Amino acid sequence: MLGVGIDVGKFFLDLARHDQAKVTRFTNDADGIAQLIQSLTAWDPGWVLLEATGGYEAPLLHALLQTGWPITRINPRQARNFARASGQLAKTDVIDARGLADMAQCMYPRLARFVPPDAWQSTLAAFVTRRTQVVTAIKQQSQQIAHIALPELMAMAQASLQALRAERDRLDQRIAQLCAPHITPAWRSIKGLGPVVQASLMSLLPELGRLTRQQVAKLVGVAPLNRDSGTLKGKRSIFGGRAAVRRVLYMATLVAVRWDHSLKAFYQGLKARGKPFKVALVAAMRKFVVTLNARLRDEQAGPVVNV
């Protein structure tokens, strides 16, 4: 098994294999990616590991998927933790590429193979991301207008705000069109699953319906993690996961614990036993996403009943 690591940057790709010190650099463009694939073909890698870099890895990832090699895209925090555990405290592109190659070689039995989302999910994710940007800009512009005194500047700011709101409305319409063919009964089975939540979960958590309850809770970052050692029983807490999904799920759960009978009873039961607000709400978030995951997974077996 040959472990290969690729450090991805905006302009360059650094390729390393675990059994060699040499690291080869390619440009992060079509020509550089083609040359990198050619080098990898000669090696016949057993596992390829790279980091998520905010989209700079997307063209390379798409090209690698065409080869059929096992590929994993990991969170940069995981790669950095592995490097520190290996005694490597310094950080450069070359060091990172070597560390990824070593991690691929050592950890491949436990690495999750990357499964690309469907084309419609990728398109939906782009629209959801843009909507988030526009909503943030609307909030900022609304706050700024309150401090504008000059009428001329006020008119310009109001025109800008109106344009942003119009763009948000167009995005909402397009997002609804993209989601409509995929809204099954399971997606309407919990109060709080409105159009924005549905679109966000479909695009940002495409694994829904294919995971166990433990896996989906950890992936979102709402699983209570143990902190025990010897006789010490530490306080359980959540850590990691997909922050964007967790933000959407938080707002959806605030609605669900008021209007969804099952989640309301669960949440109020925790509060009655003295659990703090945030602890009870995170537990309700976990139940929310676990329930939705199970209903999507079991939907083919029978009808989903609204509760």
| Largest pleated sheet | 5 strands, mixed
Overall, the morphology is globular
Summed up, the domain count is: 3
The helicity comes to 55-70%
Strand content: 5-15%
Task: Give the H and E element order.
Answer: EEEHEHEHHHHHHEEHHH
Mean pLDDT: 92
Distance between the termini: 50 Å
Count of DSSP H/I helices: 11
Can you list the strand order of the major beta sheet?
Answer: 3-2-1-4-5
Alpha-beta classification: alpha/beta
Give the tally of β-strands.
7
Please compute the radius of gyration using only Cα atoms.
Answer: 23 Å
Which regions contain 5 or more consecutive residues with pLDDT less than 50? Answer: 303-307
Domain Transposase IS116/IS110/IS902 C-terminal: 188-268
Pfam family, one: DEDD_Tnp_IS110
Domain Transposase IS110-like N-terminal: 4-147
Protein name: Transposase
Task: Give a topology summary.
Blueprint: E1 3-8, E2 12-17, E3 23-27, H1 30-43, E4 47-51, H2 58-65, E5 71-74, H3 76-85, H4 93-107, H5 119-145, H6 151-179, H7 195-204, H8 213-220, E6 228-229, E7 232-233, H9 243-259, H10 261-272, H11 277-298
Parallel strand pairs: 1-4, 4-5
Antiparallel strand pairs: 1-2, 2-3, 6-7
InterPro entries: Transp_IS110-like_N, Transpos_IS110, Transposase_20
Protein name: Transposase
Domain Transposase IS116/IS110/IS902 C-terminal: 188-268
